[in-house]
Specification:
Layout lengths: L1 H19 L3 E3 L2 H25 L1 H6 L4 H16 L3 E3 L2 H20 L8
Antiparallel strand pairs: 1-2
Length: about 120
């Protein structure tokens, strides 16, 4: 149940960001849900492999290269999902930063409140 809610919240964030960011185009709500699923899959499968392969560069840049990896995953999602178009690298970088920010705010509502 929580996974489905996370996918829906991510697709909502994708729609909101695409509405305000001029370099991102999304055709339908179905495309937004597919983007959320593909980005989740890429974060689980592809990102750990890329982090390990680019570890020396990540260490040299003090972790800033992880932003580049996130932007590359957004570009890859744009190539995979029909109806989701990313116009360039810098737009993908800004999109990934905004999506991370939106997700952290939205997912904070899903955390279990522990009683004291």
């Amino acid at each position: 149940m929580k996974t489905l809610l996370r996918i829906l919240l991510t697709s909502l964030a994708v729609l909101v960001i695409a509405h305000f960011l001029t370099g991102i185009t999304i055709d339908s709500y179905t495309s937004a849900i597919l983007v959320a699923i593909v980005l989740g899959f890429l974060r689980v499968i592809v990102k750990p492999i890329l982090v390990i392969l680019t570890l020396p560069v990540t260490v040299l840049t003090l972790g800033l290269f992880l932003f580049v990896i996130n932007a590359l995953m957004v570009l890859l999602a744009g190539a995979i999902v029909p109806g989701f178009v990313v116009s360039g690298f810098w737009i993908a970088l800004l999109f990934s930063l905004l999506l991370s920010l939106f997700q952290s705010v939205l997912f904070s509502f899903l955390r279990d409140k522990k009683s004291k």
